[in-house]
Amino acid sequence: MLQPRAIVKIADNSGGKIGRIFKVLGGSKKRYAEIGEIVVLSVQKAEPRKGVKKKDVLHAVVVRQRKPFRRSDGSYIRFDENAVVILEKGKKDPLAGRVFGPIPRELSEFGFHSITSKAAEVV
Predict the structure, then answer these.
(1) Does pTM surpass 0.90?
(2) What is the Cα Rg of the chain in Å?
(3) What's the distance, Cα to Cα, between the start and end of the chain in Å?
(4) Mean pLDDT, the chain, as a whole number?
């Protein structure tokens, strides 16, 4: 459950390290983002000489959240941090070539097949 001004970790090798969400896509009154939803964020910290720079405004998908997420079988899954993966503009493909950390399998059900295939660990 992420809302505007939330600080998130960027879980790919695009160059960004930390981002700040400033818009949750999906309607003018949409307040919170869950796993699998697209947000607009600004990069707060970035690695030098990479594709993503500080102050870049990008679209990203939420891949981990601290709030327990209810699965369709009734179980819950919860992560230690809030994390996102940066997307290409207008597509559901990640900007980077690698995705770090555990990724829930629900992302492929939401249409992000390329993120789950690039992830090392699918939970």
Answers:
(1) yes
(2) 13
(3) 19
(4) 95
